[in-house]
Design brief:
The chain is an all-alpha fold. It is built from eleven helices and two strands. It folds into two domains: 120 residues, no CATH class; 84 residues, Cytochrome Bc1 Complex, Chain D, domain 2 (Orthogonal Bundle).
Length: 230
C-alpha cells in the first residue's frame, strides 16, 4: 500500500477509535484460532494480513500497514478490535469498487468477536512474518487464490476445514485428477463435504499457474508437510 494511502487509512482508523468504545475487552474475549479461520475464508480475498498469509490483491486496506501506524500512535489491541468490529458492523455503502466498499454482515455475533480478536492480536504487530511458504511458484498461486481458507495443507501453513484436508486426499492422486478437482470441482465431491468450491478457477488461474499449482500440491501434500520448505 502506498504510504499516503496507508496514512489516510490510519487516520480513518484513529478517528473511528475515538468515536467508539466497542472494543473494550474484545481482544481477550474472542477465539483467535477460530478467528483466523474465519478471516481466511471471509476477509483474506480483500485484505492483506501477514499472519494469515493473505495478499488480498490490495482491494481493501492492508491491515498490517494501517494498524502498524495506528499502534505507533497509541492504539492498543482492544481498540484495534473495536475498530474492526465497527468497520464490519458499519461498512461503507456497497459499490462496484471493492477498494472503497465492503459487504454488509460479512461476519456477525460470535464470528465477528473472533475475527476482531484475531486481527487485533496480529495486525501491525512487529515481528510477525506469517506462514513461511516453500520456494515454489505453485505456493504463490495457492496463497493468492485463498486456498488456505478452505483447505488444510501443512506445507503452506493452511488449516482450513471447509474443504478436504489436502495432506490426506492428494497423495496417490494423478496430476490429471488434481487438475480436475480445481477446474471442475463438482465432478467428484469428497464424502462429507458440500459442493461449495468456486467453479471459475479455470478462468481466474492462467494455464501456467494452474500447472504450477498442481505440481506444488503433488510435491508438498502429505503427512510430513510435503518436504523441505524454502
Amino acid at each position: 500500500m502506498p504510504r499516503r494511502a496507508a496514512r489516510r487509512v490510519t487516520l480513518a482508523l484513529i478517528g473511528i477509535a475515538l468515536l467508539t468504545a466497542t472494543g473494550c475487552g474484545v481482544a481477550e474475549s474472542g477465539n483467535t484460532d477460530r478467528g483466523q479461520v474465519l478471516f481466511t475464508s471471509k476477509c483474506a480475498s480483500c485484505h492483506a494480513l501477514k499472519d494469515a498469509g493473505s495478499t488480498g490483491a490490495l482491494q481493501g486496506p492492508d491491515l498490517d500497514a494501517a494498524f502498524a501506524q495506528a499502534r505507533a500512535s497509541g492504539m492498543d489491541s482492544d481498540t484495534v478490535a473495536g475498530v474492526v468490529k465497527a468497520q464490519v458492523e458499519n461498512p461503507r455503502p456497497s459499490t462496484n469498487n471493492p477498494s472503497v466498499s465492503m459487504p454488509a454482515n460479512l461476519v456477525t455475533g460470535d464470528d465477528l468477536e473472533d475475527v476482531a480478536s484475531y486481527v487485533a492480536s496480529v495486525a501491525g504487530v512487529p515481528g510477525i512474518k506469517g506462514p513461511q511458504l516453500p520456494n515454489d511458484p505453485g505456493a504463490t498461486v495457492f496463497a493468492n487464490n485463498q486456498c488456505s481458507g478452505c483447505h488444510t495443507l501443512k506445507a503452506a501453513g493452511a488449516s482450513g476445514t471447509t474443504g478436504p484436508d489436502l495432506d490426506k486426499v492428494i497423495p496417490g492422486m494423478s496430476a490429471a485428477e488434481v487438475k480436475q478437482s480445481i477446474v471442475d470441482p463438482s465432478a467428484k465431491i469428497a464424502p462429507g463435504y458440500a459442493d461449495v468450491m468456486p467453479k471459475n478457477f479455470a478462468q481466474l488461474i492462467s494455464p501456467q499457474e494452474l500447472n504450477d499449482l498442481v505440481n506444488f500440491l503433488l510435491k508438498y501434500s502429505g503427512s510430513q508437510g510435503g518436504g523441505k520448505q524454502g
